[in-house]
Amino acid sequence: MSTDQEQGPTYGFDTLQIHAGARPDPATGARQTPIYQSTAFVFRDADHAAALFNLQEVGFIYSRLTNPTVAVLQERVATLEGGVGAVCCSSGHAAQIMALFPLMMPGNNVVVSTRLYGGTVTQFSQTIKRFGWSAKFVDFDDLDAVKAAIDDDTRAVFCESIANPGGYITDLDSIAAIADAAGLPLIVDNTTATPYLCRPIEHGATLVVHSLTKYMTGSGTVTGGVVVDSGAFDWSASDKFPSLSQPEPAYHGLKFHETFGPLAFTFHGIAIGLRDLGMTMNPQGAHYTLLGIETLSLRMQRHVENAQRVAAWLEAHDAVEAVTYAGLPSSPYYDRVEKICPRGAGALFTVALKGGYDACIKLVDSLEIFSHVANLGDTRSLIIHSASTTHRQLTAEQQVAAGAAPNVVRLSIGTEDADDIIADLAQGLAKASA
Ligand SMILES: *Cc1c(COP(=O)(O)O)cnc(C)c1O
Question: Are residues 302 and 252 in the same domain?
Fold first, then answer.
């Protein structure tokens, strides 16, 4: 089955998650995508080599830039997200740097939501300063504040579709409209939703980033990331994006946008980003992720079904003060589910216990099926008490603001039997409140 871009939309999600980007191996007929565990690829002749190095022909040179197994994964994720191209990277955090790298120069800033994965808050508030970049953190429910934060040095707007840890849902269409009016790309981290639950490009996103480490691979085996480009942004409409619109000295003055059109961002990501930053995904990791994506829709259906049942059960429990799941009518984000992620509100939420810090610690230590880990989006149910782990160094006020108050645990609901997950929480909560 060929999965050229123009054919993609004619197939359903369940078909594309298995077939997009993949063909039987031309050399052997292998039906599953082989792991091309090779650093380099032989040139047909000197002219072929020159054409590849001049970006006049697309092909495989060296696996820091391109690799056939990774290329299949790139095409598959791009297709599932409705984008024109994608660049795989070594982790979700690498993908975030790779998304910003072509857009930002020293002195530039990115306007970002306050509701983000904890590691992203650190990357944006601390580490990117070393590049001369900065981030302005804003409450993305306050649209006027988002508008007001954008200035002449802003080069992008960044948020998560379903935000970690509380399952908060961003009104992507409204944020995209603000970015658009300012001539800026909107970057959406779609890790916790996956393209099965949410397709940010359909809501106006320019770029979609993922930690493939989570639901996309699904079994907690791989660290990986990806940047998907919608192909819809006009990089030459202003002088804000010289890396894409102006001559590139390392390629004899080639202008990426003029030369590659809608694929400008993707080509830049490979030819400059991976070449010089080297945040490359390895073929073995790409293979595991491809296997995981084959069952993405099936797993996400079960994740959502289980999360819905477990969240409702917890909300009715005597020991529980509050549950943040957007799939519950009590959530302030309940009304956004239908619009932003109509197939369900994901499987990640927080639970506040009446028994406070001590009850949380006892619960975490009493559970049998849940693993106490700093991860999410595994087939296994996972729990973490943020205040004593990932958010330990924060002040009490900062913990509360981050949705990680001392009496809060975060659950990532797996695909086990919902009855077993609930029974485990029931025995854990009994011990925690004893
Ligand atoms: C895990 C995660 C990241 C970082 O991904 P890594 O693969 O761990 O680098 C970024 N954003 C979200 C929402 C995540 O859950």
Answer: no
Ligand 1 atom nearest residue 224's Cα: 7
Residue 136 — φ and ψ, nearest 5°? Answer: -110, 115
Q: Do 271 and 341 reside in the same domain of the chain?
A: no
pLDDT per residue as tens digits for the range 314-362: 999 999 999 999 999 999 999 999 999 999 999 999 999 999 999 999 9
H or E stretch at 155: strand 154-160
- Which residues are CB-contacts of 65 (< 8 A; sequence separation ≥ 6)? 270, 271, 274, 275, 280
- Which residue among 98, 162, 164 is best mutated to probe the pocket of ligand 1, counting the most ligand atoms within 8 A of its Cβ? 164
Domain assignment of residue 160, given as a range:
19-292
One domain for residues 189 and 331: no
Count CB atoms within 10 A of the CB of residue 204: 19
Inside any domain, residue 128: yes
Alpha helices (H) in 23-170, listed in sequence order: 46-53, 68-81, 92-100, 118-125, 143-149
Nearest CA to ligand 1 atom 8: 92
CA of residue 190 to ligand 1 center, whole Å: 10
- Residue-wise pLDDT tens digits, 236-293: 999 999 999 999 988 889 999 999 999 999 999 999 999 999 999 999 999 999 999 9
CATH of the domain at 338: 3.90.1150.10
DSSP category for residue 161: S
**DSSP one-letter string for 85-111:** EEEEESSHHHHHHHHHTTT--TT-EEE
- pTM: predicted TM-score of the whole model, two decimal places: 0.95
Q: Are residues 44 and 164 in the same domain?
A: yes
What spacing in Å lies between the alpha carbon of 221 and ligand 1's midpoint? 14
Distance from Cα 345 to the centre of ligand 1, integer Å = 18
Alpha helix ranges (H) inside 269-355: 275-277, 283-293, 296-315, 334-340
Query: Of 252, 271, 292, which residue sits at a domain end?
Result: 292
Choosing from 239, 260, 292, the residue where a domain stops is 292
Q: Are residues 269 and 310 in the same domain?
A: no
What is the dihedral angle through the alpha carbons of 134, 136, 137, 138, rounded to the nearest 10 degrees?
Answer: -160
| 93 CA: nearest ligand 1 atom | 9
Residue 192 beta carbon below 6 angstroms from any ligand 1 atom: yes
Q: In the chain, how many domains are there? A: 2
Centroid of ligand 1 to alpha carbon of 205 (angstroms)? 19
